[in-house]
Amino acid sequence: MKILFVFNSLNRRYCGQIFRYDIKSFRRQYSKNEDRVADLAIIGIGPGGLYGALRAKEIGMKHVVVIDKLPTVGGTCINNGCIPSKCLIKFSYNYHQVKSGVFASQGVVTSGLKLDLIKLMSSKSKIVANLSDHMTSILKTSGIDIVRGTAKISGCNKITVETDDGKRRVVEADNIIIATGATNRPFPGIEIDEERIVSTAGVLNLKTVPKRLTVVGAGISAIEMGSAWCHLGSQVTIVSNDSLIGAFKIDEEVRSKYQKILEDQGMKFVMDTKILGAKRSGNVVKVQTEDVRGGKKKEMECDVLLIAVGRIPYTEGLDLERVAIKTNKNGYIQVHPNYQTSTPNFYAVGDVTPGPMTAHKASEDGMTCVDNLCGISAHFDWINIPLVIYTHPEIASIGKTEEELQEEGIPYEVKWCTFNENARARTDLDTTGCIKALFCPHTKMVLGTHIISQHAGEIIHEALIAHQFGITAPQIGRMVHAHPTYAKIYKTIYGR
Ligand SMILES: Cc1cc2nc3c(=O)[nH]c(=O)nc-3n(C[C@H](O)[C@H](O)[C@H](O)COP(=O)(O)OP(=O)(O)OC[C@H]3O[C@@H](n4cnc5c(N)ncnc54)[C@H](O)[C@@H]3O)c2cc1C
């Protein structure tokens, strides 16, 4: 395979030259680099940094260094985000299913039900540690250097790392990728103590089940964590100044139905309501609110308050100014389509850059960035990034919402189907949910797919293939889908 490699002008070894190489000769080129200067250094070993480093090795870079201040590999995703939250969601749902008599109704009779929260949490921690160790060993066997400590940019090709043992280490590299992720957005005037007023990290490690959990925010993490603790027995109240829960990339009608399902499970939603402030008073938290429309003020009490009002890019202490790396007004590092920052041998990927803040976008960024950095022209389309909220049922979406199609004046047809019509959902005694499909009335191209169902996060990928590769609704309808499966809902909706 012949590939055109165009090395950027600041790359010291290949300054200004254009090469035509195949992968083997590229590997040979990099393997000549025996000096101490790394080919690539990456700050942050979350999904962006991790997959970027592995791709760099795959392509044939000789010396790749990854740096992280956390003692364990995996960034937010493995340590405080995707993985522990999904464990909590799964375990809490298991408990709920036994408690609510679902298992008993199937003849699986359990007695003496007890929640051992300490064991639940330690099981979650084991899964997190195992996955992190697994990724560490993949990095090591790939020959990637792992440096633990806090990184600061100290020159055009230099990073100074304050290592965990209090020492300083200077890492020199031809190219540097910043993959430092994001941090929780603070709520002005409300102080997190990770005991009664907690962040999304703290809520994953509560020591007891709070009787009343109030959540500020109605986005993905707010809903996921609210739902998990609701299944463990908390009275959960979601308070938000938005009118709808979920994310704006999900169709509004589907979001309303989803809210209704969660309400039926016992979650309470106080929407269109602004939080004015919150203070801990002993073992309770007093929260002041104001109705966005009428201005009516109220005070509510809870045992634990979760602040989940989104995430902001994290660049603290990096010293971006030293090498003139520009950020936008919201603090995201500005990048060109090839992920290059305003300073050519510095690149940035993942949550620290604009775009959807998901692990799958960050890892794709990491790999695509490295390809571009090595001259392999690559890009991926943000439109085709699936969005999933991992509650029970899940909600998943890809493509346009009906609101977007209306706004953009794009003609569309709508088809709906409930999981009541799905044999597999019926065998599982869980027919909650529906699919809303939007497609072009003329070309029959699929324009948007929004699903509520227990496996929505899995079956959305069939719609993703259709969106990405232009497969039409009748073409999906003609495909043979295994029976009984949740995915057969596509056959039901498009096969008629
Ligand atoms: C509760 C929660 C649940 C989530 N669930 C999901 C989910 O189910 N699916 C999904 O797709 N996304 C989920 N996310 C989002 C996902 O975790 C992030 O989008 C993803 O981790 C971003 O990857 P990243 O590589 O950009 O950064 P991160 O994963 O945040 O990694 C950045 C790393 O950089 C390190 N770092 C920062 N500054 C320095 C420095 N100066 N020196 C050294 N190291 C530094 C940090 O220690 C960190 O390890 C969730 C997030 C949260 C908070």
From TrEMBL:
Signal peptide: none
Alphabetized GO MF terms: dihydrolipoyl dehydrogenase (NADH) activity
Swiss-Prot/TrEMBL keywords: Disulfide bond, FAD, Flavoprotein, NAD, Nucleotide-binding, Oxidoreductase, Redox-active center
Cofactor(s) in the UniProt record: FAD
Pfam hit, one: Pyr_redox_2
Binding site for FAD: K86, D351, M357, T358, A359, H360
Top-level class of the enzyme under EC nomenclature: oxidoreductase
Domain Pyridine nucleotide-disulphide oxidoreductase dimerisation: 385-490
Domain FAD/NAD(P)-binding: 39-366
Co-factor remark: Binds 1 FAD per subunit.
Gene3D superfamilies xrefs: 3.30.390.30, FAD/NAD(P)-binding domain
EC number: 1.8.1.4
Name this polypeptide is given: dihydrolipoyl dehydrogenase
